[in-house]
Amino acid sequence: MSQQLPAAFADLAHFVPGWNYSTEQARSAFRVQQSQPVLEDFYHTVMARLDEIAAYLDAFALDALTREQGNLLELALMVMEVAPAIEYYHLPDVPHAVAFEKFDVLPTPPRYRVVDQ
Amino acid sequence: MSVLETFDHTTTRRLHAERYPELGTGPVSVTPFIAPEFLALECEHIFSKMWLMVGRIDALPTAGDYFVRVIECLNKSIIIARGQDGVVRGFHNVCRHRGTRVAAGAGNCKYFTCRFHGWVYDTAGRIKSIPDESQFHALDKQKLNLAPIHTDVWNGFVFVNFAEQPRETLREQLAEIGEKLAQFPTQSMVVSGRWGATLKANWKLFLDAFQEGYHVDTVHSGTVGGYFTGRRNPSCRPSHLALYQRNRAASFSYDPDFTPHRSELFSIKSDAALTQGAQAEQKKLPGTNPDNDPYYSFDINVIFPNWLFDTSAGFYFVHELWPIDATTTRWESSLYFAPPTRASQMIAQEQTITLLRDAFREDVATSESSQAGLNAGVLKEIHFADSEITCRHFYQVVTQLVQNGGP
Ligand code: FES
Ligand SMILES: [Fe+2]
Predict the structure, then answer these.
(1) 3-state SS record for B301-313
(2) Is residue B170 part of a domain?
(3) What are the C-alpha distances in Å from B367 to residues A94, B137, B203?
(4) What is the span of the domain harbouring residue B107?
(5) Smallest CA–CA separation between A113 and chain B, in Å?
(6) Does residue B368 sit at the A interface (CB-CB below 8 Å)?
(7) CATH number reported for the structural domain that contains residue B100 in this entry
(8) Would you tell me which of A102, B14, B51, B94 could form a disulfide with B386, CB atoms 3.0–4.6 Å apart?
(9) Is A83 an interface residue toward B (CB < 8 Å)?
């Protein structure tokens, strides 16, 4: 099996597959279905590495990422999706809001591209 | 009014009413928010006669690109297409033979072909071919092109007007806001978040949720409330405020005591962010922060009749509100950022995308609750505070246009 993440981030490998999604639609639907302790664990683990992740990925062109780099970027995007659940709501989903199912998260054009070797 | 007064957000004076006495101060009737008859008048005198924003020109970069837009309250389906000659046009999506739709969704094509009997039109709307044409009786082909709609473009936004002869040009309708934001760099940004809901609320009631800050400390106490409220401005009053003939603009400021969370600290240093605090000043874009508020966060620009073009330092977002019936609205919102060139920029943008989306979900919930209350028929009138003068102005513009039979 090929590597899931760049070698320097092997300690995050247990989040892939599972936490890497390519769209906001998929990330938001995933977040609201998790339990708070599971979100907290992900948030604290990945947030602690976020500066390193960003510094590492900034060296590569966004239109030609490898699968491993793409997975890492998607973990970073997921930590931003999860952040308000930890920093603000202390719940997986925003309370006092319209039900997630009654709200459309609409597709947007991709902002990066993974090139399979 | 001095600049200092503009930025005193705790005064007991009602400064906007002093400045706009013609708007009155009394309660307003609930009828425009609940009555089907009132919506029928709005459709007749407002939506059928004024320029309506229907999309971004970026969706049509090359010849043959098109998108279809359905405007339910007018029973219209329209095609916006870039012809082979490069010109962007609007047509009714109605086959000249017997009325069938000739296009759906979005895409790129050379021809629109009706699925019923196969009449063919080109992307400039001209009739190109009629199968078994000899069987028709004296068709006048001059009259068989797709029916055109007045279409115009401003700062990359595409507008249509269903009137035979629009009473105002698009520029006249956009007026002061059109001038102010002509140079705002929409062309350098791309859609990065897009959301929608079909909600049980009158279109004006939901639009009001996006033009007053009074609800921010309560509705958004779980999300962005803390960023916008604090000792300096406990009730999120607007700073800059300008009411024009039918449009209006306001700016909102952030709380200088706000302490960013970890995700926000990352976004602030890596790109533009909703909760960016003092960074905003350094990233000021043309047409934003008209009063140079040192604690500027973002501007709302409410453009009549049904959309908001909200600008900030490094991003903008748009709301569209389309009535379906008197108490049902289709709302869509899009958030635009500069296309990220580095991963850190994209990660930073994701923080604003997520938080703004969750805050909008809060707005949908309270507006549906508010509509349900009005539907109960208990209230004959509702009240607007001075800090909600944007809602009062909107109410007055709508009721006057309905009374006067349009612009
Ligand atoms: S209705 Fe379009 S071809 Fe007949
Ligand atoms: Fe709101």
Answers:
(1) EEECCCEEEEEEC
(2) no
(3) 16, 55, 10
(4) 52-165
(5) 11
(6) yes
(7) 2.102.10.10
(8) B14
(9) yes
CA B66 to CA B77: how far, in whole Å? 13
Question: What is the spatial distance between Cα B361 and Cα B209, in angstroms, rounded to a whole number?
Answer: 12
Same domain assignment for residues B242 and B387: yes
* Both tokens assigned to B355: 């938080």
Q: Which CATH number do you get for residue B20?
A: 3.90.380.10
User: Is the CB of B374 within 6 Å of ligand 1?
Assistant: no
Domain layout of chain A by residue ranges:
10-100
Whether residues B239 and B364 share a domain: the answer is: yes
| pLDDT tens-digit map of B277-296 | 777 777 789 999 998 888 99
Comparing CB atoms, the residue among B192, B342, B366 nearest residue A108 is B192
Question: Is the Cβ atom of B113 under 6 angstroms away from ligand 1?
Answer: no
pLDDT in tens for each of the 117 residues of chain A?
457 999 999 999 999 999 999 999 999 999 999 999 999 999 999 999 999 999 999 999 999 999 999 999 999 999 999 999 999 999 999 999 999 999 999 999 999 999 976
Task: Please tell me if residue A1 touches chain B, with a CB cutoff of 8 Å.
Answer: no
What's the number of domains chain B is made of? 2
Residue B117 beta carbon below 6 angstroms from any ligand 1 atom: yes
Q: In Å, how far is B366's CA from the nearest CA of chain A?
A: 8
